[in-house]
Structure of SDR family oxidoreductase:
Amino acid sequence: MNLFDLSGKTAVILGGNSTLGGAMAVALGAHGAKVAVVGRNQEKAEAVRKEVEAEGGEARCFAADTTSKADLEKLLSEVLDWSGSVDILMNCPGKNSPTPFFDITEEEWDSIMDVNLKGVVFACQVFGKQMVDQGKGGSIINISSVSSGPPLSKVFTYSASKAAINNVTQFLAREFAPAKVRVNAIIPGFFPAEQNRKILSEERIQSIMNHTPMNRFGEPSELQGAAVYLASDRASSFVTGTTLRVDGGFGAMTI
C-alpha cells in the first residue's frame, strides 16, 4: 500500500525555482511525478531540475510570467505537449515588502497583489480547467503564510494577499469538488526563503522565536512531506479546502 506514489502524474510547480518551491518540486519528482519547474530565472530552475533527476525523477524547465494569463495559457500548452496531462499544480511564487502602511504606493500594492494573488487565481483558472476537463481529478496546492491571519506586523500587503489565498482555496475547493479536483493550501511558518530574509532583523528574529514553540526556523525539506501528502490522490483523497500548517507551532501560540 503505497499512499504516496505519484507515478503517472504531471506536477506543474509555479515558482519551482525558489527555495521552498524547489524543495517541494524535488519531493514530488522523487515520488514519481513528472515535474515542470516554472520560473523566470532559468539558471535556478535548471538547478532544481538537476536535483529532481538526482533523486531519480524526471523534470523539465519552463519560463513564464505567472502574473500573465496569456503566459500561463502558453505554459499549459507547452506542458501538455511534453507530458500529455496536468494532475498537480503548486502555486509557489511570492513577493514581500516591509514598507510601512502609510508609505505603500499603488505600484507596490499592485506588484505584490499581482504575484501573490492574481497570478494564483489565473493559474487556477487555466490549469484547474484543464484538470476538470480531463475528468480524472487533480490536486491544486497553494502556498499561504502564517501572516494570513492574524496578520504580521510590517508586511501589510503580503498579509492581505495571503489572507485572500486562504479564501480562494476554500472557494475553489467547493467549486472543483464535483470534478474530484482538490484544492488545499500549505501555511509555512518561518523558513529562510529569499523574500523574507531582508526583513529579519535580530529583534524580529527574537520575536519570531518567542512565538514559535519549537524555537527555530523551518528547513525547506520540512515542507516536502506536506506537499507529497496533498499531491497524492491516495493519501489525501478526501482532503480539500483545508490549510495545512507547517509552522513549528506558531499558529498554536498565544501568550
